[in-house]
Amino acid sequence: MLSMAADCAAWLIANPVEAEDLRESFVSGEEDNGGHLLSNKNIHEINGNWLSSSSNGIHEARLKAKAKRRLRKNSSRDSGRGDSLSDNGDVARGTLAAPTSPKSKLLDRRSRLGKGRGLPKKGGAGGKGVWGRSGEVYEPEQVDEKDPNYDEAQENCVYETVVPPLDERDFEKTVTPIVQEYFEHGDTNEVAELLAELNLGPMRSEVPTLAVSMALEAKASQRELTSRLLADLCGPILSYRDMENSFDKLLRELPDLVLDTPGASQFVGQFIARAVSDRILSKSYIESYKGRVDCKHTRAALDRAAVLLKMSLGGLRIDNHWGTGGGQRPVTQLVKEMNLLLKEYILSGDTKEAERCLRELEVPHFHHEFVYEAIVMVLESKGMKTFNMVLQLLKSLSASSIITVDQMRRGYERVYMDIAEINIDVPRAYFILEQIVDKSFSMDIIGVTIRDLCPCRAHI
User: 355, 371, 365, 376: which is closest to 329 by C-alpha?
Assistant: First the structure.
């Protein structure tokens, strides 16, 4: 009731004419039966409340005032949402949805004053930590000569990144991983790019020395990669003088290198011969040491290089002296080298040398070919000498795990598959194969499973 009275008072103030009419209607009213019936037809009392035909106007005024208050409150809170008041007093919602999450309200950069078009402040270029409007290009700042901090000497300065030269300790820590990774991927261009980014300075001639020292304890294929690396680095990264200085240091350090690698003298000699062949060392390099060598290891290295260079004149290719890794060789070349290895073993009978040669081929995934060629050689040979020597070699290779069980099995299975074709050229091939399989089983070269798979003429 209090709120109704307050609303009526507010309406009377806003509508003085209607209020005067209402007073006159109250004065001229009549009372009947304790109820209040006024003479004015437009005024009635219902349940203790005075109502008239203009009460609809009061109610409408209240709704309009309430809607205006809501509109002012919403526009000051989130300006630009599109809220507006329609002609009939209803609030029309815009198409834009108000941000619901606290984060979206926090990051909202529109005006909070209810003014403007609701655009971001300063076109999105204002605020703390803002670099400027998107796409804006800053021109070079003009130097003010009247500035008290102005220095004429700095006007034509050129700024560039300076890389300090490597000392001996940093050189080994930086270059050693590069060479080790090169032994894995074999890309000389990558090594050249990495070295070009370093300031080698006086340590430039140490690169060949470090690479050769690491290759002395590596495999033959990695020594071949080292020779290729030196040939590709000479010119773009290293000079010819750097190459000569590095090999001079290697010859001086040979007494220490031999302690770790007994064959260092021979290897260094081969590196020198290969360098002369690749034209990164002059042909007179070896001649310059004549009469000036007292160390026996240095003399042995130079003699080895001189012999290889003389052999190259007779047709020996020094560029492939170290050999190539198994993954990079064609299959036909590997088969040829394995046959040559077997023939040399039959002539010499040196099992250790045969093991070393097979290991240096670096093709453990292709050892089944060696087993296949060895058994076929026994099938095609005459007499028991080759029979016994080949089985003894297979026994030694199996015991030392140079040839794994899987590779041995695959080699025997390949012979089983081709025995029909081999029997065309070797009539007694089935009989000899049964003898080889039985002897191999008794010597623990193969297991019972492989033995039972052996074909015989009765099964054909």
Answer: 365
